[in-house]
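[stage:ingest] chain + small molecule (adenosine-5'-diphosphate)
[stage:ingest] validated
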Amino acid sequence: RPVIKLENVTKVYSLPTDDVIALDNINLEVKKGEFLAIMGTSGSGKSTLLNQIGCLDVPTSGNLYIDGRSVRDLNDNELTDLRRDKIGYIFQNFNLIPLLDLCENVEYPLILKYKKRDDTGRPKKLLEMVGLDETRVWHKPNEISGGQRQRVAIARALVNDPAILLCDEPTGNLDSRTSVQIMDMITDLHKEGRTIVMVTHEPDIANYAEKTIVMGDGKIISEGRGFS
Ligand code: ADP
Ligand code: ADP
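[stage:predict] done
[stage:export] tokens:
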């Protein structure tokens, strides 16, 4: 059974002048443990598709199922729980909180969930796991490099041990050497059994995935293994 299933998902943005069909009747299944890349030109619907999969936005029509549960049937609290417990998000611009140190950034989702400070040491262990130097954990995000920020963001995405990891251009702001390190890390998370869906416009990065779909004008225009 697919861990993610989109059934006739259409997303229309209504603008004052016209309607933009960002997703046009998408049908897609992602199996448990699969690593899928989403490619396509700018404006083709990649981010909109990832936001739908991440339950960050509701479809105009059609339906999304996560682990067999119809997202339409969930109330706001259930949806928040699902996003928090099942899905980790990694972004191009890292989205770390500037005023919090690195350890607090990773701890933050736990505070939201348990309404108290962490006493398990998990944030620090995760920072160690992603290879962040121990002397760095009390620094602020603006005191470290882009590659280190993405490591912190990955640690934060993992803190609730999600089965699904969504990555939007995870290497978009990184040099090629650092990109390889981050992709190796994402590949390891896939080997551990996590389901990965990643948006990228770079063929070299898509090649890390097992399967690639290419978006064009809100539709899936091709589908294949790797990119080449
Ligand atoms: P990408 O996903 O390609 O890195 P963005 O998601 O920032 O880039 O934008 C993709 C396209 O969507 C752009 O053409 C941009 O103008 C458009 N877009 C993004 N957000 C909005 C918005 N809030 N209103 C209108 N257009 C938007
Ligand atoms: P991509 O990620 O492939 O660059 P997007 O999913 O960001 O593409 O955008 C798909 C289409 O939807 C584009 O035509 C874009 O301009 C439009 N779009 C995206 N976000 C918004 C928004 N918030 N409001 C209006 N239009 C949007």
